[in-house]
Amino acid sequence: MPSILSELDGVARAAFEALGYPAEIAAVRESDRGDAPYQCNGAMAAAGIAKKRGEKVNPRDIAAQAVAKMEASPAIGQLEIAGPGFINITPASALLTARANELLSDPAAGLATETPQTIVIDYGGANVAKPMHVGHLRSAVLGEAIKRILRAQGHKVIGDVHMGDWGLQMGHLISELAEEQPTLPYFDDDYQGAYPSESPVTMEDLARLYPAASNKAKSDADRMELSRVATAQLQSGRRGYRALLDHFIDVSVAALKVGYGNLGVEFDLWKGEACVDPLIPDMIEELKAAGIAEVDDGALIIRVNEGEKDKTPPVMLLARTGAVLYHTTDLATLVDRKTEINPDKIVYVVDQRQALHFEQVFRGAVKAGWYDRDQLFHAGFGTMNGKDGKPFKTRAGGVLRLEDLMDIMNDAARERLEASGIGAEFDAEERAEIARKVGLAALKFADLQNQRMTNYIFDPERFTAFEGKTGPYLLYAVVRIKSILRKAASMGVEAGVIDIQADTEKQLVLSLDAYGRAIELAADKYVPHVLCEHIYRVAQSFSRFYADCPILADDVAPEVQASRLALAKATLSQLEHGLNLLGIEAPDRM
Ligand code: ARG
């Protein structure tokens, strides 16, 4: 069945249509006044239309006529005309009951769209060998949520980590390794044999080699030149260097899989910039032949400004040195995705500071005729700042390492749990697991509940609070319902058919009913905060219901117990379903 809102919407539209007005003006929405859950403001618009036709009708009269038509519908509980002609709508209890029972059997009822698409989500974006920064964390958390939300709508969604593995950092690694271990076969031009399958470096080596080289290069131009040359030779296909790159990527991917895995983030594709290198020569030929790419001051560019006034700088395909750039690999990736996947849409979940880069790349791809502009979307986001208002750094002032951040959250969660005595009765292992989940939920929810584009301040103390709009508050709501269900089972009370009676029950069903709309909005604009709001609202509605309607008390009649318990169960399924879409996992108890 459709949602309660769309059921009522249908009734109102039919009534206005029958009165000779366009159906659209009768759209029903959640009310912002407290009188009834929904409202229809069609009468005001209808009066305007009537006036244009030369009729003189009062909007209250139109509202009265519409109400007379709507009343007959079994979906309607109560109708009331307010002010100049607002129609306040209360749905029939039977409708609430039917919808609640439906959600009980299928928490995802009404989420799927009718036209599934193939969508690539480009997120994560970690750079091989370079430490992650906070932007990578946000990209991973937001991208994962967006991916799951779109999947819940039935789309085929492919998440690609798109690693940065083709830049100067590779030249730094290669040249530094060459200084450390010059006798490795990778550096011997006369070496003909196969290279060892075993990597000559570990992740620790990479973590040491990169900063060593990049620090030296900062103050030593000759050292920088070595890295530049190594990068150029790698990019022009020097055999030993390519073999090294493969090792670096394998070693990094293994480490990134662990890091992202700990964060609960999974990718379908582990591709990167280096993967598309073989496509670049043909792509450049095509763009040149089509007259889209042109030589400008020795560089190869695509002009993408729209008109004289538009100052958007050109896409840089090849630098004057012939080097391939960030624009080039992103364009080649678009070619790769077109041939390998042919997606309906590609969404880039990347720091807002790269907005210009994507605008340029998208315009280039459109100009080349590979994509339509509305197939490409940059879902940018603001930064996670420290208390000083600058992008968050570790206490030592270093760039963020994901593990460090997770440790901070874990500690904050553990302290919070200890201070509030939550879970004190469990053994150490379970307490540690609870702290891990609470810390992660705190971090993710804090990140996701903001409007994507806003900056926010990293505040583990506030994120881990059990009160307010936080991850831990939501986990607590989930765990509380689970514990009610366990207690019910131990008492032999079973969930039955839901029968909606109390006001707080009605409110709860109306909250649950809004899930589909929240998902739709969140998916439409790639804004998971809308889903966060929804989940928070459901948790609050549940709290009010439970305070008002005890479930397992002995003075509650058995069929009422069964109904309330079932409503609690339906709430739990939706909370868990929604939290899962946000990538948040709740413990069984705490
Ligand atoms: N590796 C890039 C960085 O660290 C992010 C990659 C984003 N995705 C893309 N297709 N450009 O800034």
From TrEMBL:
Main location (coarse class): cytoplasm
Key word Cell inner membrane present: no
Keywords (A to Z) from UniProt: Aminoacyl-tRNA synthetase, ATP-binding, Cytoplasm, Ligase, Nucleotide-binding, Protein biosynthesis
Gene3D superfamilies per the UniProt record, alphabetical: Arginyl tRNA synthetase N-terminal domain, HUPs, Isoleucyl-tRNA Synthetase, Domain 1
This protein's GO CC annotations: cytoplasm
Catalytic activity entry: tRNA(Arg) + L-arginine + ATP = L-arginyl-tRNA(Arg) + AMP + diphosphate
Superkingdom classification of source: Bacteria
Coiled-coil regions listed: none
GO molecular function: arginine-tRNA ligase activity; ATP binding
Domain Arginyl tRNA synthetase N-terminal residue range list: 2-91
EC number(s) recorded for this UniProt protein: 6.1.1.19
Enzyme class, first EC level, given as a word: ligase
Family annotation (InterPro entries): Arg-tRNA-ligase, Arg-tRNA-synth_N, Arg-tRNA-synth_N_sf, ArgRS_core, DALR_anticod-bd, Rossmann-like_a/b/a_fold, tRNAsynth_Ia_anticodon-bd
Motif ('HIGH' region): 126-136
GO biological process, one term: arginyl-tRNA aminoacylation
Compartment(s) where it occurs, according to its Swiss-Prot or TrEMBL record: Cytoplasm
Domain DALR anticodon binding: 474-590
Family that this chain belongs to: Belongs to the class-I aminoacyl-tRNA synthetase family.
Subunit: Monomer.
PANTHER family noted in UniProt: ARGININE--TRNA LIGASE, CYTOPLASMIC, ARGINYL-TRNA SYNTHETASE
Full protein name: Arginine--tRNA ligase
Organism: Litorimonas cladophorae
Gene of this entry: argS
